[in-house]
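BUG: 3D viewer hangs when loading the predicted structure for this chain

Environment: internal workstation, default settings.
Expected: structure renders.
Actual: progress bar stalls at 90%.

Input used:
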Amino acid sequence: MGKEELTMEAMIERFQKRLAWQEEHGRPRSKLIYTKCMMDYYTRVKEAQEQGKPLALTSILFYPEILLSMGVVTFAAEQYAIQLIASGLGLDYIDKGEAYGFPKEGCSPQKATVGLAIEEILPTPDFIVATAQSPCDSSAVMIENLTHIYQVPMYFLNLPYRYDAAGVRALKAELEDLIAFVEEQTGLKYDPDKLREFLENSKEAHDYYLKAHALRTRVPTPLGGRDAFSSFGIRMFSEGMPETVEFMKAYYEETLEK
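Structure tokens produced before the viewer hung:
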């Protein structure tokens, strides 16, 4: 398998073909929105540096709203590796990542992400941002590896373990430091009103998400595991954007109709 199948251009072309097929075969509206969102997302990543926009590589559990509201293009590299592996592509890059020194016990997509970075298949970011804690501990190790590979600035967002007053203060301080970091790296300025727009979109999308998944308790369930998990992917890279709200609304309405 040649590297050309793993490039961003090839990924965009696959989603273009998928969207055309879905339209031709009358697939549900949520599927069409999802596929177009994915296609547009990869196009933004591909064109970011061509258009002089800063590109931030993120972990999949990073909150993108602040960066997106500031005009930064975000790229969840693990999600790209997952997309390739799910399509049966790039499996040998898991071994390449492990050979680089990534722990054998680590997540396969994270090992593949490191392998793809080594082979210069992923776009080179201007900086890296990630959450320091996540349910998948090897994510932090992956980010450290990517920082060594790309030699770019990196910011770890520390998340509090408790949602009490002290936890809120700690998270507020972390987010303020994140904003200062992004401003320093990009020269862009934080706009609280712009962020509020993204957060309002996030809340609306999240409300539709909760309502859709609450319907899974019905017997028989109107939302199987595969479709239920698909709603997670779009939020890795476009949380807070209006198209995510559009997808979640259609996703909920279709589930309710079933």
